[in-house]
Amino acid sequence: MRFKELLYKIFQRSRDVQFYADVLYISENYLNRWVNYATNKPSKQHINEVLIYNSMVLLKDFLKDILQVAFDLNLSDVCYFRKLFGQKTKLTSSQYRNSIRQDLFFYRIGKKPYSGID
């Protein structure tokens, strides 16, 4: 699927479906119908999934603050980033980052985190 390949390569340039349709030389409506037919998901959902995946990767860099992660993703509004991340992952970006820290800590000491279930 050419749309997905393009999305992974240049997703930081735009989160607008029309942008990808223009690059592929097709109409936005045709792109949306084709992607939805092929994947059962709208084009915008694919764009948001790639954005969230890449944000999760960037959040693993503990030297970057949330503002820098949003900036690296070409998002000018940190509030929008936090809202979208929370909607898609059910975690705040800080909670996600803390879970990574906790996992790393327990990995380093060779124990599993306490789950409350014995």
How would you describe the overall organization of this protein?
The chain is mainly α and 118 residues long. The chain has one domain: Homeodomain-like (Arc Repressor Mutant, subunit A, Orthogonal Bundle), CATH 1.10.10.60. It is 69% helix and 0% strand. It has seven helices and no strands. Helix 2 packs across helix 3. The mean pLDDT is 88.
Short account of what is shown:
The chain has 118 residues and is mainly α. The longest helix is centred in the middle third of the chain and has 17 residues.
**Count of individual helical segments:** 7
Question: For the terminal residues, how far apart are their CA atoms?
Answer: 46 Å
DSSP E strands, number? 0
| CATH homology superfamily name | Homeodomain-like
Question: How would the blueprint of this fold be written?
Answer:
Layout: H1 2-10, H2 17-23, H3 28-39, H4 43-59, H5 66-72, H6 78-89, H7 93-109
Helix pairs in contact: 2-3, 4-6
Task: List its traits.
118 residues, mainly alpha, Arc Repressor Mutant, subunit A
